[in-house]
Amino acid sequence: MLFDVEEIRKDFPILGREVYGRPLVYFDNAATTQKPLCVLDAMREEYLNQNANVHRGVHYLSQQATELHEAARETVRRFVNAASADEIIFTRGTTESINLVASSFCEGLMQPGDEVIVTEMEHHSNIVPWQLQAARRGIAVRVLPITAEGRIDIGALEELLTPRTRLLSIAHVSNVLGTVNPIADIIAIAHSHGVPVLVDGAQSAPHFKIDVQALGCDFFAFSGHKMYGPTGVGVLYGRREWLDRMPPYQGGGEMIDTVSFEKTTFQPLPFKFEAGTPDYVATHGLATAIDYMERIGIDAIAAHERELTLYCRQELQKIEGMRFIGPSDDAVVSFLVGSIHHMDMGTLLDRLGIAVRTGHHCAQPLMDKYGVLGTVRASFAMYNTREEVDQLVAGVRRVASMF
Fold first, then answer.
1. In the prediction, which pLDDT does 1 show?
2. Are 335 and 357 in contact (CB under 8 A)?
3. Each residue of 7-56: pLDDT tens digit?
4. Mean pLDDT on 174-184
5. What digits encode the pLDDT tens for the residues 271-322?
6. How confident is the model at residue 399 (pLDDT cuts 50, 70, 90)?
7. Spans of all domains in the chain
8. Is domain 41-294 classified as CATH 3.40.630.30?
9. Which CATH fold would you assign to the domain 5-30+297-400?
């Protein structure tokens, strides 16, 4: 279909509201996106007409709900081009997906002294789970540096990989810098050393096409709420050869085959990693969001967001004292202006109706790398416009004039 941002905006009623008497300009999409009416309608319809627990009931409503839930799994499989729907695990989001891998992979496939590599640009959710495992199991967390420009130091990766390296866990796109990492190349290097790779796709799945088979990744994690879907639902893709070898992450209903006080056996994939009642309405909402993105066109969305990102950076750089943090490859512009505190900038922009993110963005080691406490971050989605970017630039210039 023809990409028409004004028509798209009609699907998001919240964009028409006012904040402090001014039209809302929403540039906090890297934190969470707004939801189109089709997603809200689909979830409301299921609660009204198909609500029943999945996989357990022989009655009609349970069968309907189960069909919607498993259809959502197939939609996700197609979206990331996984080989099988059995490789699609539903979680509460990227954070839980990474914690699942950290817990189960370390328990089943790592020994004290084994190493996992992360990078300096990681979100806390791809640092802290590994640190917890280091404290519990005696593994080592090694850090791949980035350059001053905010890009992975590929040469350093070869030096970090050792016979004790068991996993590389890396962001596809930095939530702070907007850097799009050369994931396929990085995976090829890791695989040449026999090291599997987990990709944090929280900031890439909403913005451009994902093909896990073409990338060659072993795990890929992403969240529904950052791609126009509901909160509290996410995905872990895992190659079957690894998921089969990993022990369950949690225990309870749904993931069991048989239970006795002497022994419990587990369901095959994907249910082995899905203990308890899933948020089956949210999975339907996520599938609806994916269908919506595909109707708009993933490539068209990506092109629109790249154009906005380039335009925003081009216009902001005209402001005296502007300092960018990172290369802004994709949908994110992080900046500081002179000596203005990022929180002051964000608070004053808010009074102008402009929602940006301020702070360390759950990436404190990265802030330390750049010697700052935090940044102002504007992040874009399919429904944002050049006119909104103009409002942001005018707002930043107005705030700057006050200091």
1. 64
2. no
3. 999 999 999 999 999 999 999 999 999 999 999 999 999 999 999 999 98
4. 98
5. 999 999 999 999 999 999 999 999 999 999 999 999 999 999 999 999 999 9
6. very high
7. 5-30+297-400, 41-294
8. no
9. Aspartate Aminotransferase, domain 1 (3.90.1150)
HEC states along the chain? CCCCHHHHHCCCHHHHCEECCEECEECECCCCCCCCHHHHHHHHHHHHHCCCCCCCCCCHHHHHHHHHHHHHHHHHHHHHCCCCHHHEEEECCHHHHHHHHHHHHHHHHCCCCCEEEEECCCCHHHCHHHHHHHHHHCCEEEEECECCCCCECHHHHHHHCCCCEEEEEEECECCCCCCECCHHHHHHHHHHCCCCEEEECCCCCCCCCCCHHHHCCCEEEEECCCCCCCCCCEEEEECHHHHCCCCCCCCCCCCEEEECCCCEEECCCCHHHCCCCCCHHHHHHHHHHHHHHHHHCHHHHHHHHHHHHHHHHHHHCCCCCEEECCCCCCCEEEEEECCCCHHHHHHHHHHCCEECEEECCCCHHHHHHHCCCCEEEEECCCCCCHHHHHHHHHHHHHHHCCC
Entry pTM = 0.97
Contact yes or no for 170/143 (Cβ under 8 A):
no
For residue 56, the model assigns a pLDDT of: 84
Structure tokens at 85: 């729907």
Is 362 an annotated catalytic residue? Answer: yes
- Which are the contacts of 220, defined by CB distance < 8 A and separation ≥ 6? 80, 198, 199, 201, 210, 212, 235, 236, 237
Cα torsion for 381, 377, 234, 185, to the nearest 10°? 90
Say whether pLDDT at 2 is over 90.
Answer: no
Identified catalytic residue from 106, 217, 312, 362: 362
Q: How many CB atoms lie within 10 A of CB 367?
A: 17
Q: Taken in order 380, 386, 387, 390, is the CA torsion positive or negative?
A: positive
